[in-house]
Amino acid sequence: MEYIPGSNFLQSIVSDDLSSGRIKEVVTRFPPEPNGHLHIGHAKAISVNFGLAEANEGRCNLRFDDTNPEKESQEYIEAIQADVRWLGYSWNGEVRYASSYFQQFYDWAIVLVTQGNAYVCDLGADEAREYRGTLTESGRNSPSRERSVSENLDLLARMKAGEFDDGAKVLRAKIDMSSPNINMRDPILYRIRSTPHHQTGTDWVIYPTYDFAHGQEDAIEGITHSICTLEFEDHRPLYNWLIEHLPVPSEPKQYEFGRLNPSFTVTSKRKLKQLVDEGVVMGWDDPRMPTVSGMRRRGYTPAAIRKFCDMIGTTRSDGVVDIAMLEFAIREDLNENAMRGMCVLRPLKVVLTDYPSDNIENLHAPAHPSRDDLGERLLPFTRELYIDADDFREEANKKFKRLVLGKRVRLRNAYVIEADEVLKDARGNVCEVHAHIIADTLGENPADGIKPKGVIQWVSASHGKNAQVRLYERLFSHESPDKGDNAFMDHINPESLEVVMEAWIEPSLAEASPEQRYQFEREGYFVADRYDHCSDKPVFNRTIGLRDTWNNR
Ligand code: ATP
Ligand code: MG
Prior knowledge:
It contains 13 helices and 29 strands. The protein is an alpha/beta fold. The chain has a seven-stranded mixed β-sheet with strand order 12-27-28-29-25-26-13. The longest helix is centred in the first third of the chain and has 16 residues, at 40-55. The chain is elongated, with a radius of gyration of 31 Å. It starts with 8 loop residues before the first helix and ends in a 9-residue tail after the last strand. The structure holds adenosine-5'-triphosphate and magnesium ion.
């Protein structure tokens, strides 16, 4: 079958609705609750909603589903907007808030009460649970169920006026306590919560539930396709019931798709918050976090995240997606677009004994092997250099294609050298290598025909700069850290961060602007840290290694 980007069962539904004339234009929304930062799962929901609108010349709203003031905050509202923008999407018009419709919801609650379709219930939380029944047992009617319309109107007004304590009463829809769908057993529409709200202050002490708010928000905004994840499938009858019973201005329809669960990851805001609160990571934007801000700081690109969301498809089943697919998308993007540079993570000094100490040669190297548009970089070549300690051995077999005493190696973008002798410290560790240059080997093979075995990176000791490099690995060492009985906190990878304080980088890298991405040749992809990097104190984060080494350890 031909692969059409962005095509999925939702696109088929939209196409049918457009061609049958049910809708003239597709209108979707992304409705985060501002109670945490966005994560990779939200990125998927964003790409589905904004993607459908974009592909069909429709619109997508950004709406905060802010009906639960206890856990929400302005900080999250701002961070979520920044994340959506960074992913490259722009919402239709102003940002919207469920809270700006609170008066309308209340007026509609009065409509339901007046119809005899809602009542004020006095059952406490424990009693209500008992009356609700179970999956196998029908529920029982609340003793409050047969209240008169006028009594209900009076009680509702007094709930709103703040006469009752939190939890003392709720407003419930009057549907069917024996419904096999528990969501239809007289669901709660309003709760009393005397918590000030980040948008409406102390105007309200009653707050609508998700079910009473969501569909009505969609109707007010003229949403045509209200797309959510599968756990809301059982709520759909209630969604439809409310739309049918209320004088709403439009008739949205709800569709569900399977949540994205990448392997080696947790995607629950509650669990992510726990990682932050318990200091397992440094914050919501720690580069190991699957949050949008964490992935950004790690060096992931919006294009790669969008590509991944598209690649994995949108289906009606929940399943685990291999995190390697995301890593593949990142590597592919960075291989294509990231400039190259040389970095030595564990510096070992090499002195070129035949090279004058006051000499500097300004060598040039392409910024990218196939992208001439990215220009060139300047590589100062000097008598004293650093190479990686792992790239030198006194003795080695033929498989070791790096520098060996008495043998040759090519310095990337520079000369072939040959190692002559080593200096050792008191403990017998090699601390300096003396070598000489093979003449006329800049871009040429040695005239004597003795070719070097390999190519290694190097940085001038006098012209390079010291850098801090943070080597990140996956945060969890278990494929499904929170599946079933797994306590996700027990599966934290103890080696998810190694900070290298004494790395050495070529001068062009110190000039990187924050968030600039590179391939450090032979090492992997790195990004200049968004907050901590500056040319005097360069700081780089490893985004991802050059190839997938995880599976071959
Ligand atoms: P969490 O479980 O992490 O707290 P949530 O579903 O409560 O997430 P919301 O802010 O309510 O978070 O979600 C906004 C939208 O993002 C919803 O439409 C929700 O279905 C969608 N969404 C959340 N997590 C995922 C996921 N893992 N995959 C796909 N969509 C998701
Ligand atoms: Mg939620």
